[in-house]
Amino acid sequence: MNTEKIIEIFKSEFEFIENKFIIIEEKINKLNDSQKEFIYNPGVYILIDNNLVIKVGRHFTNSRKRALEHIKANTKNELFEMKNLIHSNNSKAILINLKDKNEFHWIASVEIYLEQKLSPLIKTKRL
């Protein structure tokens, strides 16, 4: 699934609060050094490789940090190991981050919805 389709899925369900979020798209190998506005905010992260959704997750304070923790810890299952994202030229992260950190209650809904719609290779265990 390409990034445009993922963003379209998010917007189609959450258009009534879309203005509360910023969508940041970054290659995995650039994510650690990115200084884009709102990149350190709470949000939902989607990790993709070759248009395949690998992982959907959320963090209530810093989605970028949490996405990178998965890669460093090599979160994996029988289908995929996250360390492979570092070496792929086709791996990306989409961060759907809040502009206002105090509105973090929206994040859980966005994460659950996208987890169900995108069917990532590595599922969230808490759903």
Which features characterize this protein?
4 helices, single chain, 127 residues, four-stranded antiparallel sheet
Produce the secondary structure layout:
Layout: H1 3-14, E1 21-27, H2 28-31, E2 43-49, E3 52-59, H3 63-72, E4 91-98, H4 105-118
Antiparallel strand pairs: 1-4, 2-3, 2-4
Helix pairs in contact: 1-4
Radius of gyration from the alpha-carbon trace, in angstroms: 13 Å
Mean pLDDT: 95
Oligomer status: single chain
Task: Sum up the overall morphology in one term.
Answer: globular
Order of helices and strands: HEHEEHEH
Structural class: alpha+beta
Uncertain residue ranges = none
- Terminal CA distance reads 22 Å
- Main sheet record: 4 strands, antiparallel
How many extended strands?
A: 4
Number of helices: 4
Query: What strand order characterises the main sheet?
Result: 1-4-2-3
How much of the residues is beta strand, in percent?
Answer: 15-25%
Helix content: 25-40%
3D structure, described in words:
The protein is α+β, with helices and mostly antiparallel strands and 127 residues long. Strands 1-4-2-3 form a four-stranded antiparallel sheet. The chain has helices spanning 3-14, 28-31, 63-72, 105-118; strands spanning 21-27, 43-49, 52-59, 91-98. The chain is globular, with a radius of gyration of 13 Å. It contains four helices and four strands.
